[in-house]
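Residues determine shape. Take a concrete instance:
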Amino acid sequence: MESRKGRKINYPKKRRKGKSSKYPWKNTTWARKKYLNLEKAIELMEASGLTANQISEKSGLSNRTVRKIRNGRDGYYYPETCEKLARGLGVRPGDIMNHEED
């Protein structure tokens, strides 16, 4: 639609309904659960004697993610991240994951 002077009128875009419908996975129950046992993961990383770069190469995770975990930044990590980290450290995924039942 054009105005009388020939310029296009910019109407605001319609927003999607819902809190975070742009990112639907954030509303799922598994996204709010802490899968990674951070203390155990840090302990195993230090015991392995590997650097963050070596762990990231072995596991397939980014160097930034490995450094965040090693520095103790608590967060909600995906289960796949825990499995990759365990593979990089040479341990079973159950060794670094929480086993709490809701």
